[in-house]
Amino acid sequence: MRNKLWPCARPYALWIAGGVACSAMEAVFELLIPLVMSDIVDTGIANGDQSYILRKGGLMVGLAAASLLFGLGAAAASSVAGMGFGANLRQAEYGHIQTFAFSNIERFSTASLVTRLTNDVHNLQMSLMMSMRLMVRAPVMLVSALFFSVRISYRLSNVFLVALPLLLAVVSILLATTGPLFRSLQEKTDALNLVVQENLAGIRVVKSFVRGDHEREKFAEKNDDLKNTSLRAFGKVVINMPLMMLIVYGTIIAVMWFGGQMVYAGTLEAGKLITYFTYITQIMMSLMMVSMIFMMLTRTAACAKRVAEVLNEAPAITDEAAQTGEDGLPAVPADGSIDFDHVFFKYNSESGEWILEDISLHIPSGTTVGILGGTGSGKTSLVSLIPRLYEADEGTVRVGGRPVAGYTMEGLRESVSMVLQKNTLFTGTIRENLLWGNPEATEEELWAACRSACADEFLERMPGGLDTDLGQGGVNVSGGQKQRLCIARAILKKPKVLILDDSTSAVDTATDAKIRSAFAHELKDATKLIIAQRVASVREADLIVVMDGGRIAAQGTHEELMKSCAIYQEVYQSQQEGGSIDG
Amino acid sequence: MAKHGPGGGPAGPGGGFRKPRNIRGTLGKLMGYLGRYKLLLALVAVLLVVSSACTVGGSYLIRPLINDYILPGDFPGLARMLAVMALVYIVGAACSFGYSRIMVHISQTTVAKIRADLFSRMQDLPLKFFDSHTHGELMSHYTNDIETVSEALNNSFGSLVSCTLNFTGTIAMMLVLSPALTLITFATLAVMLAVVKTVGSRSRRYFAQQQKALGAVNGYIEEMIEGQKVIKVFNHEQEAQAGFRQRNEAYRAAAVRAQVFAGMMMPAMGNLNYINYAVTCCVGGLLAIRSGDLGGLAAFLQYSRQVGQPITQISQQVNTILSAVAGAERIFEIMEAPPEADEGKIRLVRAAEDAQGNLSRVHYDNNTWAWLKPDGTLVPLRGDVRFDHVTFGYEEGRTILRDVSLFAKPGQKIAFVGSTGAGKTTITSLINRFYEIQEGTITYDGLDIRDIAKESLRRSLGVVLQDTRLFTGTVADNIRYGRLDATDEEVEAAARLAGADVFIRHLPQGYRTVLSGDGGSLSQGERQLLNIARAACANPPVLILDEATSSIDTRTEKLIEKGMDRLMAGRTVFAIAHRLSTVRNAKAIMVLEQGEIIERGDHDDLLEQKGRYYQLYTGLAELA
After folding, report:
1. Interface touch A582/B578, C-beta < 8 Å
2. What are the pLDDT digits (tens) for A503-545?
3. Closest approach of chain A CAs to the CA of B305, in angstroms?
4. Mean pLDDT over all residues of chain B?
5. Which of the residues A28, A499, B218, B256 could staple to A418 if both were Cys, CB 3.0 to 4.6 A apart?
6. What is the sign, positive or negative, of the torsion defined by CA atoms of A116, A121, A126, A131?
């Protein structure tokens, strides 16, 4: 885990070292001050030496000033290192996610990736900063205070032999008992938040079924759970402070008793005794800090684990097997022919059922292929293998005669353009979104693509034209308009293979037909794969593939299938009964 | 429909510097919650005072210890004095434990109460409220806001009082010990306050900048990770990285500035305190040469080391309390938001009809319902819904429905057809009174729906929404959501009716399979089937189907058609559908465009009219 996070901190190694040194020095200088004080009492006051007192006083102010400087240095260095480490880590994690295949993304889920990039990294950077300030300071304080105490009086230091183990025992017992309590507190909080989240998301359902009271009961149960756990957890925590105070005060009293006798006997000076009190308080403070840091670090450890999980995730699909073409450059598909050779596929390797089973299919370059099938029949999975969004488990998928793994992902996806079912437009103008397809596209090319996707008609009506701002997630366009923009974006790539995964579901049949006929003219050489719900959308295709239960149930032209395929006939009949607006 | 605002990420510690608008009012409301702990709070006050007195007093004992016992060598006296000291410390620690423990109890029970009240009040708020707030925003009341209130009640209030008491006590004791030395302390304190003020205001400004930059990074992360698959398909990784790098760098720069400043506070305060200690030591030493009061000096030095601490702590605690008050203010704002209007008095009751057709109220389930008017008369529930010149808009000035009149005779199927935004869903939302209409009336069996108690109104309507929502729990629990007292047999019957039984039996634990994360393991079509089963379980007289079968492929839809027919038999049904095949057999089809009904009739009538419906049916026009 450390191995993954450390490279992000390495550029700040000097800052970290400097910051740690500064905060250590700050602690040491702070502890020297009481030592000088004892000189004032024991030598200055005892001898009535005013100039000695002033000299020593000046020394003390100097020490305090030095300590202040180191303290500020530590604050600055820890901020630079902590925030810099956070930025590097975020960058590394984000960069690594860019190499993820679809299966990697799904394994974590989008929401979880967002948390791991935001909250978790934030927590880690704050922890590094705080521990640079406190983590060194506390032990240095503890050790130096002990060192100075022993130097002042070896005999008197024996009290620590009792006090320190006692303190350590208290701290560790508390940490051990509160740790699980706080973990369970987190679980209870999550459970409560889940109820609220589901309530908010399903508020219409709640209101429709008049389930307000039912929801209140669900909430009350989790709320009571949370309350009782937090009472127990925080109830334990508050013992911490008074108990430590008692131990420290006990030590002070012991020091007074033994030290007092030593002072009377002349083996210890009064000033040294006062210094001793100071150190005892110091030791207690540092121990409390240590216990605080540990509490913070348990939470941080969880975050670090979650971030490391992302960083350790090996991309499921790599360019390892990419071959070079005859020109020595990475190979690119020669044409748009596609072959499936006994392909088996499933999303989850542990699952027993195949999503695609023994698929063999040849698609010549430049043809139009329609794919039909019910929900869950494997249509989307089938086409996802072509741009290698997922990897086939068995068998080979070939594009342009070469297995898809033989290309770099960039080379393959440059040639295979896929319009996803769940598509996204990004914040920015329409133009910026279209340029994703081809950053160098000219104005004419942009409009040509829009015409092919039938997006020109509404674009011309928009006041900003191509420069209309889409707003976040493309909220300023309707579903059908969004789908057409996504198609235009895909066309701009000038792909050898164009895949539309139910990409015209919100477009009316007439426009749909227009888009298809534009494809036939403008994208003559490209192989076109169209997944559709409507028979009408695929009817004129050179080849229609009917999927059922992960297998190819039948393939052929419309006429052939109408004769031979029962499923196809059934689907056809069901759609003849009534037109469809978008489904 | 999870809404994510841009930058709706974590606020992070030190974030959210929104100043409370009305501190006094909010504190007053918080006090209202604490009111029932009056006695306990009084006890806390006593314990706080005693514990502070012990802490401050304990240090004073150093003076007589040194001057009167150690230096003269009076050991029996020293032992007595140390016993007194031990007693003082034990009492102090006990009191401090006592008040902390009580505060934990008070704060956690209070926070739980606030949480429950907040949730409870939220259930009463109108949909309009939920439309105008993102989920992230509302969730943050439960996570961030309540957390800060809890923190403040748990620690800050107690610490603030005890720090103030300690501080005044310490100053008082210092004055007793040496007025001259106390002057030095005052001077240092003045410097400290000035530092707190200047550094504090700068640091607040930097923090605001940091939060803004953080919002930009988090917003970018959210959008890009959501669209990660598109990024992959378009080989857009490099560009996505460049955009990220720029925002990440801006945040780093802002964060370093903010944290350097914030981080300076601690060493500055701590070491100013040491300078004070040094000067005090020096001057005290000079004074002690004359007075010989070594014990006094020791005690004073002990005090002067303690005196600076409360200042930093007080400023920290005040910040925590201010953000807690701001959090509490946001919570109370929600609690005080006007709840859904529900002044209706007419209730839905079970009824039985005798041979003469007279209704009487009964208390068993016989599938007959009636409206009970306040005057005791019963009106049979038939499902006769009428819109009379209804005009409605979600916001002032933006009319969605204009002068809509329609009626559904009992047992009829009414379908709405029209493009997105034409107002189809709006009409169904008005029937169950999710929103208040601006003009006109909606009647239900001749009764104005405003006169019907909301709970009764909605209980009589079964809704299958387009946006399928499932709750964490078993499949059976989710179906039973429609009617909480449904038996297992009834649940399964409902599932069979909806055609969901087959796939449910194929799930690992059948009806006992636990769904989590909004039923993420189910396909969209399966989720819709469960939704239909839920409505079937509720067995309502009137059904509203809002795109109930949009995600079910045509073949499956055919399979469940019979179930749907059985579900709709004898009920008034309002159906919205994209697929015209679904609405084809409706008695009346309304074609909506821009909030107005432009065509109405049955399928054949409409086709004959060769209007909009005809165009839609033949695919000549686009709906989107």
Report:
1. yes
2. 877 677 778 888 888 888 888 889 999 998 778 788 889 999 9
3. 9
4. 83
5. A499
6. positive
Over chain A, what is the mean pLDDT?
Answer: 85
Does the pLDDT at position B525 exceed 80? no
Q: Cα separation of A364 and A385, whole Å?
A: 17
Alpha carbon of B121 to those of A208, A213, B114, B325: distances in Å? 17, 11, 10, 20
Closest CA–CA distance from residue B416 to any residue of chain A (Å): 12
For residue A394, the distance in angstroms to the closest alpha carbon of chain B comes to 23
Residues A130, A109: Cα–Cα separation, whole Å? 31
B132 close to A (CB below 8 A): no
Does pLDDT of A1 surpass 50?
no
Compare B39 and B498 and report the one with higher pLDDT.
B39
Which pTM value belongs to this model?
0.76
Distances in Å between the Cα of A219 and the Cα atoms of A488, B116, B497 are: 48, 7, 31
What is the average per-residue pLDDT within A3-26?
90
pLDDT digits (tens, 9 = 90+) for B398-418: 777 888 888 888 888 888 887
- Kindly write down the DSSP assignment for every residue of A95-139, as one continuous string: HHHHT--HHHHHHH-HHHHHHHHTHHHHHHHHHHHHHHHHTTHHH
Q: What is the pLDDT at residue B196? A: 81
Residues 259-298 of B with CB under 8 A from A: 259-260, 263-264, 266-268, 270-272, 274-275, 277-279, 281-283, 285-286, 288-289, 294, 297-298
CB burial class (10 A; 0-12, 13-18, 19+) of residue A241? middle
Burial of A353: CB neighbours in 10 Å, binned 0-12, 13-18, 19+: exposed
Helix (H) or strand (E) holding A445: helix A443-452
User: Is B578 within 8 Å of A72 when comparing Cβ atoms?
Assistant: no
> B-chain residues within 8 Å CB-CB of A60?
274, 277-278, 281-282
Residue B336, Cβ density class (10 Å: 0-12 exposed, 13-18 middle, ≥19 buried) = exposed
Strand B572-576 versus strand B588-593 pairing type: unpaired
B503 touches chain A (CB under 8 A): no
Q: Residue B615 above 80 pLDDT?
A: no
Judge: A263–B71 Cβ closer than 8 Å, yes or no.
yes
Identify the pLDDT of residue B207.
Answer: 83
pLDDT at B618: 66
Instruction: Decide if A205 and B558 are in contact by the 8 Å CB cutoff.
Output: no
Mean predicted confidence (pLDDT) in A114-125: 86
The ipTM (two decimal places) reads 0.83
User: Checking DSSP bridges between strand A551-556 and strand A543-548, what pairing results, if any?
Assistant: antiparallel
Q: How many percent of chain B have pLDDT more than 90?
A: 23
pLDDT at A301 over 60: yes
What are the Cα distances from residue A522, in Å, to A449, A495, A527? 9, 12, 12
Give the closest residue to A9 by CA, choosing from A130, A138, A98, A124.
A124
User: Rounded CA gap, A459 and A438, in Å?
Assistant: 19
CA distance A19 to A28: 14
Q: In this structure, what are the phi and psi dihedrals at residue B596, rounded to the nearest 5 degrees?
A: -125, 150
Q: Does B156 touch chain A (CB under 8 A)?
A: no
CA-CA distance, B146 to B327, in Å (whole number)? 7
**How far, in Å, CA of B578 to CA of A509, rounded?**
13
Contact indicator for A363, A382 with CB cutoff of 8 Å: no
Q: Do A95 and B241 touch (CB under 8 A)?
A: yes
Q: Do B112 and A223 touch (CB under 8 A)?
A: yes
pLDDT tens, position by position, A323-364: 887 777 888 888 999 999 999 998 777 666 788 989 999 999
The CA-atom distances, in angstroms, between A11 and each of A6, A61, A266, A380 are 9, 36, 56, 44
Write the Ramachandran bin of B136: left for phi over 0, alpha for psi from -120 to 50, otherwise beta.
alpha
Is residue A370 very low, low, confident or very high in pLDDT (cuts 50, 70, 90)? Answer: very high
